[in-house]
Amino acid sequence: MLRQLLCACALLPSLAAPALGAEGEGTRGEELFRKNCKTCHSLTDDGVRRAGPHLAGVIGRQVGILDGFAYSEALKDATFAWDADRLDGWLTNPQAFLPGTYMLYRQADPGIRRDIIDYLQAAVGGAGN
Q: Under CATH, domain 2-7+27-123 is a member of which superfamily?
């Protein structure tokens, strides 16, 4: 229940994409990640526990495998690895993509999803990177 409540906080930001700051303040994807995802997810495996698992090496990583994280049965039973297309479906509507999951965040705007996924690919890369 706590995980659902914390992830619900990610629903509060506006769906509108933020304007970029001054040059050197980060990419649009980075800003969108910070606004929409950072409440629940870290980009590093730094030991800080959040509502969602860390995303270090998420591209190519099997779902539901990080030690010490309480995944839903739906994620524990899934048999695929994350790639850009699956992340896009997941971010669009996690419950429709994989019924029984805990994540509540949804992103209807395909441009925002693409920028977040592109940022993840650049920032954390794939499994084993």
A: Cytochrome c-like domain (1.10.760.10)
